[in-house]
Prior knowledge:
The chain has helices spanning 37-47, 61-72, 89-107, and strands at 4-13, 25-34, 57-58, 113-122. With 123 residues, the protein is an alpha+beta fold. Helix 2 runs antiparallel to helix 3 (89-107).
Amino acid sequence: xxxxxxxxxxxxxxxxxxxxxxxxxxxxxxxxxxxxxxxxxxxxxxxxxxxxxxxxxxxxxxxxxxxxxxxxxxxxxxxxxxxxxxxxxxxxxxxxxxxxxxxxxxxxxxxxxxxxxxxxxxx
Length: 123
């Protein structure tokens, strides 16, 4: 048992002119963590009203920027227990890069599709 965490991007094509069997969307892996309960707790508290129900949480550019700032300024809540990995400068750098990349992907100019970023955890 553990905490697996996923950050995914979805690119949804316009369905107005889609033909049968036409591509209507693409899903991208933007990040993956294992037992990073500090980050998980922050996202659940800030963007899902504290409800930890393993449902997808939609994160817009503002939310991603808020998470990035919290990581940069060491504002993630301290948690302890079996589901906690050691958080060092290497992990922090990885998290900063991941959320910076997610913002870049989300805000990339794309006239053919809308883009969404979602976070989901699995216990």
